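Revision sheet: structure tokens.
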Amino acid sequence: MTYRHAWRDEEVGDMGGPEIICPGLLVLNAVCALLIILFERKNPGAALAWIVVLVFIPVLGFVFYLLLGQNIYKERLFILKKKDDEMLKGILKEQEEWMTAGGPPLDTRLGAFRPLASMLLRHDMAVLCPDNEVEVYTAGDEKFSALFDAILAARDHIHLQYYIIRDDHLGRRLVSVLAGKAAEGCEVRLLYDAVGCRRLPNDFFRPLTDAGGAVASFFPSRYLPFNLRVNYRNHRKIAVVDGTVGFIGGFNVGIEYLGEDRHLGPWRDTHLKVTGSAASFMQLRFFLDWNYAAGDDLGFEECYFPVRDFTGDAVVQIVSSGPDSLGEEIKKGYLKLISSAHESVYIQSPYFVPDGSVLDALTIAALSGVDVRVMIPCKPDHPFVYWATYSYIGDLLAAGVRAYTYDAGFLHAKTVVVDGAAASVGSANWDIRSFCLNFEANAFIYDAEVAGRLKAVFEVDLAACTEVTPAVYAARSRRVKVKEAVFRLFSGVM
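Predicted:
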């Protein structure tokens, strides 16, 4: 299926004039602006974006700021039990000592990406897991077939968390299969995001809970009908079976992810199945989120973290980030990947709204002779973000970055591949929301075979793309230019 490109639009008509605002409203709006500047003094980009909101929506924009712009980084949301924390710190200390010594054989396998692995180890507690088999899925039927097979084969426990679960035949099938496993005696825990799943009926998970499974919601509204934490979403997509098999990537649970949405059409995403010790650190991420959301006390019991000799040889780190810290660990991982590139950087993302540091990194790489390519969808599922995305693509073309719009469906993959040797796949987009506001999780993979597969997927996708050349970009309509200019102003709060 081929789509008409959203950027081929008609000319814009009269935009109209500004409304007249009474003096009292202007004074109140100025006070609101000063408060935003005070609250966001360490983040001038966000402050400017919210002041723009105030210009367009006087005073009420400040109410939106209180609902959407509150900062939660000082809250310690995810805390390990003391004994578990000491155990993890012991593992980290051993790996840090090994990284300092630079001992073989793992060091050889990391190659030029050793500094990246070291940074993520030290600053995100992302343990290096050297024994993984990794399978790549780019279609929903393949991914969900593998997931259901793993669930049906479970013997001890099944842990899942998704941002979106739909009340459709796929979502209901998932609940039914999980309920069947719970009835067999498996421990089943399902964590969902309160915003992403806000349209689910109240009894949607009842078959699972009636069968003995447990369900928890992340950041549910305590002040109905308003959710004061609506801006902070647990965007992670993680599934762990028996502590040895893990799934991580971009697919949520809904028929659109099977390509059955008539508006979006075929769905192109990327998800990984990881068999090996990296599944233990997906498990750890799930436990931290689950314990917070469910008020539970799950820890490093052997049944959840089995010791096994795995046969894979892909080195994987599970990296997470969120608004409860100022580290922006996934973004820094992206930046370090780009700076490590000698030959190529291939990026796929449905939402590409980078900050200055990412723009600079990509520009420097392209100007240094690295083949930098960015692929985005040809049509939006969130129009505001799409037009901001398209404006940033324009910034990169002059530096020699090549950009493409994917025409064969909706592109939802969140991947970056560097030199065909290292890659990252997960839930994090290349936008300010994923860098700062959402709780995200990615797998960073140091393996030429896996990275080579992901690079090959990108190259196959190119056949279904239209390249956005400088000439094509310059020829876009005035209406498109206006949309880009307006929505780029709001990119800091999208």
